[in-house]
Amino acid sequence: MSVQIKPTYEPLNEVTVLEVVKALDFFEEAALSHLHVKEIGDGNLNLVFHIEDQASKKALIVKQALPYAKVVGESWPLTLDRARIESEALLKEAESVPHLVPKVYYSDRTLAVTVMEDLSDHLILRKGFIDGHTYPALAEDIGTFTAKTAFYSSDFYLHPFEKKEQVKRFSNPELCKITEDLVFTDPFFNHDTNDYPAELQSEVDKIWNDTELLREVSKLRFSFLSKAEILLHGDLHTGSIFVKENSTKVIDPEFAFYGPAGFDIAHFIANLALNYLSQNAHAKEPFNRESIQLYLLQTIEKSWDTFTETFTQLWNEKSTDPYAHVDGVLENFLQKTFQQAIGFAGCEIIRRTIGLAHVADLDTIQQKDVELFYKKKALELGSKLIKNQRNITNITELTDWIRGA
Ligand SMILES: Nc1ncnc2c1ncn2[C@@H]1O[C@H](COP(=O)(O)OP(=O)(O)O)[C@@H](O)[C@H]1O
Ligand SMILES: CSC[C@H]1O[C@H](OP(=O)(O)O)[C@H](O)[C@@H]1O
């Protein structure tokens, strides 16, 4: 698309965003004067505009990074480069899983915008789960997404020069720092970003005083800081996944960077585990609860199995690693990735319960005592997973732990 864009950055609004859209070749000329615009962003960081020609129903999304974190305000400055990372990550993901990401129509570094496919016919997975819906294609789609994006960005496939170019291109220090702090540090210390009800203080104290737990978290944090294994989405929670029956789209990869291979699938699993706990409060009938919870555990199992099967197939057919065909090399990699994923999942569960950024699954539980009960369960589960990474040897053992939480 050809476009004539503003020379300097300015935050867009429902009027000025039209100047961007009109410069694109997307809508019919006749529709440009009466496009319907709405800012729909509900995330922590950015503006998201939905722009529609209501006659033809043709629509697109303009996402713009603000120079600060929207959830906190201007006191938390944040790089605009995250918009470049997001659009380049979407394009990179589209090389291996085009059916699982929104199409990027246009991006502009000065304005920090990504113009992309409108997915309003899909629903954010977290909302779908809270309302008790299930999605048959989800497990396979997320297993495929995580395996293909992992393999094709790794040293098992890329030439080392190309891999190192990609590591540079996706260097994302400010967004990584958010994760380093909010996922791996602040919830494990008495830090002012933490946010939890006073009634949880004794459970929180247990975490802060558990030396064995802190030792394991420090290893996971170090791994996150230092292991440039694959290009990660970086924030693969259920608010970053759009779904409808038999369609899955992964959005919002502004946290993308080269990191440890188990991180993305761990976040997916952790958010399913949080929803699993919350279903005890949300599900209307015991039968519904049991079937949704069974579905969630089966989805965790199938997504991991698809990840390993897809990764294994790519390894056997396409690996350039000189040790690829040596017995046990792939198995060691997958086993190490699995065990670390269990630890990462534990950290995500804890931070979503007592850290800065919570999940609606637990926070929208209506009765206060029930909410507290399941938040305690989440903290126990997160701690157990972190401390038992090396004792959980396969995916059904992991789902047994979640079932037993
Ligand atoms: N491609 C899209 N199509 C339709 N709605 C979208 C699209 N991308 C984002 N949204 C809407 O905007 C919200 C925030 O988007 P997200 O990318 O998660 O922003 P943030 O980076 O601020 O978290 C989503 O929850 C969704 O409702
Ligand atoms: C101040 S950022 C907190 C939190 O928000 C991000 O999520 P999202 O962009 O999907 O709203 C990310 O998970 C950060 O940890």
TrEMBL record:
Keyword Plastid carried by entry: no
EC number: 2.7.1.100
HAMAP family in the record: Salvage_MtnK
Taxonomic superkingdom: Bacteria
Pfam family of the protein (one): APH
Sequence similarity: Belongs to the methylthioribose kinase family.
Top-rank EC class of the record's enzyme: transferase
Taxonomic classification: Bacteria, Bacillati, Bacillota, Bacilli, Bacillales
Binding residue positions for ATP: 46, 63, 117-119, 252-254
Domain Aminoglycoside phosphotransferase span(s) in chain numbering: 37-272
Name of protein: Methylthioribose kinase
Function text: Catalyzes the phosphorylation of methylthioribose into methylthioribose-1-phosphate.
